[in-house]
Amino acid sequence: MTRAESCRIIMHVDMNAFFASVEQQRNPELRGKPIAVIGRGRTVVTTASYEARAFGVKTGMNSWQAKRACPQLIFVVGDNRKYTWTSTRIIEMMRDYTPLVEVFSIDEAFLDVTHSLEIFGSAERIAALLKERIREQFGLTCSIGIAPNKMLAKLASEMKKPDGLTVIEPGEVKRVLERLPVKELCGIGRKTERQLFLLGIRTCGELGRFPVAILRNKFGIVGDHLSRMGRGEDDSPVIPAEEAAEVKSVGHSMTLDTDINERREILTYLLQLSEMVGRRARRYGVRGKTVTLSIRYADFDTWVGRQETLSCYINRSEDIYREITAILESIVLTQPVRLLGVRLSNLRYDSDQLPLLTEQRKELFLTDAMDAVNDRYGNFTVTFGSLLDAGKLRDKGSKVISPAWRPDGLRNVEVK
Amino acid sequence: MEFKILKEPFLRALQRVQGIVEKKNTMPILSNVLIEALNDNIYILATDLEVGIKTSHAATVIEEGKITVSAKKLYEIIKELSDEEITFKTKDNDWVELKSGKAQFNIVGLSPDEFPYFPRIHDENLIKISGSMLNDMIEKTSYAICHDETKYNLNGIFVKAVEDGDRKLLRMVATDGHRLSIVERELSGSICPELSNGAIFPKKGIFELKKITEDVDDDIEMTFMDNSAVVKKGDTIVVMRLVDGEFPDYTRVVPANNDLLVTVDREPFLRALKRIAILSSEKFKGVKFNIDPELLEISSSNPEIGEAKEEIEISYTGNTMVTRFNAKYIIDVLSVLGDETVQLHMKSEMTPAIIKPASDDGFQAIIMPMRL
Q1: CATH topology match: A179-230 vs A245-395
Q2: What is the CATH number of domain A245-395?
Q3: Which of A356, A358, A362, A371 has the most B C-beta neighbours within 10 Å, making it the best mutation to test the interface with B?
Q4: Which end of chain B has the lower number of beta carbons within 10 A, N or C?
Q5: H/E/C letters for each residue in A349-377?
Q6: CA dist A49 → A31, A45, A52, A57, A75 (Å)
Q7: How many angstroms separate the first and last alpha carbons of chain A?
Q8: How far is A278 from chain B (nearest CA, A)?
Q9: Largest Cα–Cα distance of chain A, in whole Å?
Q10: d(C-alpha A37, C-alpha A306), whole Å
Q11: How many angstroms separate the Cα of A48 from the Cα of each of A41, A87, A354?
Q12: Structural contact between residues A263 and A252, judged by C-beta atoms closer than 8 angstroms
């Protein structure tokens, strides 16, 4: 381990059964009971409470599988808006201890507290303060791992759940990793695990000692990285949101409640997605030159995606929809559609130049006026006539919290 | 065919067509020049199907005929020859032999039969227009041409003849959707129906037209045929296919009641704008105008670099007004004006402004402000 690395102190905070816990706090009747949060219209378990996990209920199970594992299980339809709101507040709290907070997902974050110790004493004290405040304000628990780098901090937080606080001291790294199965490391999935197993590598200790040349031969440059992981080395910095690479695109996708075939219905969803993408692009004052349509079929494996680069930069929903429709025309759909996505990329900042021609100016002011109403009274308050189709009105907004969700900036996708 | 020609005029003629030949190589023949030897002249033709040019040059023709060869390669070869006289001779199967001093080239050409049709003009229909006037009019409008190819009807200059009382005027209009430039000048002689209706001259053709009218006081001659405009000056003929589209109704864009008048000296205004514009970035483009009686403050700020401001003296009697413009649009206008004093006619922060030279009634530029 390099010296620079050995003096860092990184903390990983993992909210325990986040969605389920938020629901249990909101509704006291659910506390202490096995509950499972499921998506609206879908019947897959998103998060199970610890009570339910004791019965073997797991994320990703069908509702009937879950019910079989735990007959008294209570299903709660997820309310993503609640989760993003709570997450944003918790991240604000973390920033009281260090500006170096990297939001990893809605319920996980890394904190670099190396330079906060002069004020707060020790990392353990920061962890205790943070846990206390989260419990006090939201009634939620979290597991915190403290270690010399991000990879080990994440590993540490996994070690005790729920409500854990685990410290891996620099001197303990070797001992901890020696008998740890490789799959426990963040970034080693089932496929890599199997490939390592073929080389006779089961534990991190074995991985760290394994000749790098052979790993490099098999995995390319990832081989070097794997070797370092096996030794517990990770020099990746904690990157706060403001410093994260500039956002390159604005996109939304939507998993449909039922698989659809009907072109008219696909177009309705695409208009809705175009409006969501357009609204977000306009809110952040960007325009894009490339539009991408992605479609996932009912078999969930096949992707169809196509992009088109235009000669001018657009951000009006109508313009995005027009281009997306043109792309759809060029695709022959071979199966019912399960997911639709619209993306605007190749971005540049909007110059705020008003058009000279009266018609175009009117269009722009109309969009402005619609945005102003929707900003105030909620998305889709004023919208396109073809979206007023009764059955669909309830479903506006992103129904999935993407892994790229962040509490601030362009990635702060409003969810429902 | 066979002819002898001097290097300098041949080179100049070939250089002239380099900008016309098709570079995308979609049709190989369009990358070639057609060279025709007839009587004691050679004719050089090039076209990209949108704009075509034909020039003629004195040469010693030994045998008449025609051939096409790569415009770029021929130009490169002629450029590097060191002897004065060049012999150009066709051989079987469209091969060309070039000789100059001890240097000899054999290059492969394409059959002249494949070369696109070039209109033959009839002298009786030609109308005469002053070359220098045309050049000045293009100069004062072409900066506003739209370069976004999807807005094809804006990719050129709208040219129209209008009658104002007993005066006949030639008007040119260009716009990119954010700003618009109109210039009109008195026209003597007859007007053809194509000009009365108005036609959109393509951008590329306009630039060729500007080139042939540079530094000359002679008249040029113009006519229309086959949806094309044909312009003749001396030995050079330029043909351009008119843009097939509707030019927007620019008369509705020109504001009528812009009562707030700012008068300012052009030179200091232009210099100040160029300075202040340095701190307007892509992200925060635009300069702010703070217009007070007697004083205009131009400012810009760029969170990543800093801010700048400058005051200049103006004559203005209205109330204080704050507005924002893309600095480039105003710089473009001021750069093509020769006058000492310019006027800004405005109405409000969010409506189009007019810029005019104080002494020229025939020109106005309309610029749409930016959002504040």
Answers
A1: no
A2: 3.30.1490.100
A3: A356
A4: C
A5: ECCCECCCCHHHHHHHHHHHHHHHHHHHH
A6: 9, 11, 5, 9, 11
A7: 45
A8: 18
A9: 73
A10: 34
A11: 17, 18, 51
A12: no
- As a 3-state breakdown, chain A gives helix, strand, coil percent values, each rounded to 5, of 45, 20, 30
Residue tagged 């110059």 (tokens): A351
Mean pLDDT for each consecutive 10-residue tract of chain B (372 residues)? Answer: 94 91 82 93 93 93 95 94 92 94 93 88 82 94 91 93 89 95 89 90 94 84 90 90 93 91 95 92 78 93 86 92 93 90 92 91 92 80
- What's the gap between Cα A277 and its chain centre? 17
Which tokens in the block code for residue A139? 């009634």
Name the active-site residue from A23, A51, A102, A108: A108
Nearest CB to A357: which of B148, B253, B285?
Answer: B253
Q: Tens digit of pLDDT for each residue in A38-94?
A: 876 667 788 889 889 889 888 878 888 888 888 898 888 888 888 888 888 898 889
Q: Which CATH architecture has domain A179-230?
A: Orthogonal Bundle (1.10)
Spans of all domains in chain A: 9-169, 179-230, 245-395
Contact A352 B370 (CB under 8 A): yes
Distance from CA of A310 to the nearest CA of B (A): 9
Chain B residues 45-104 within an 8 A CB cutoff of chain A: none
Chain B hits for A351, Cβ within 8 Å: 282, 285-286, 326, 370
Residue A242 in contact with partner chain B when CB distance is under 8 A:
no
- Return the SS3 of B118: coil
- Cis status, amide bond into A162, omega within 30 of 0: yes
Of residues A232, A159, A226, the one with CA closest to residue A8 = A232
> Which site among B155, B246, B283, B323 would you substitute to test the A interface, given the most A Cβ atoms closer than 10 Å to its Cβ?
B283
Residues A9-169, CATH architecture: 2-Layer Sandwich (3.30)
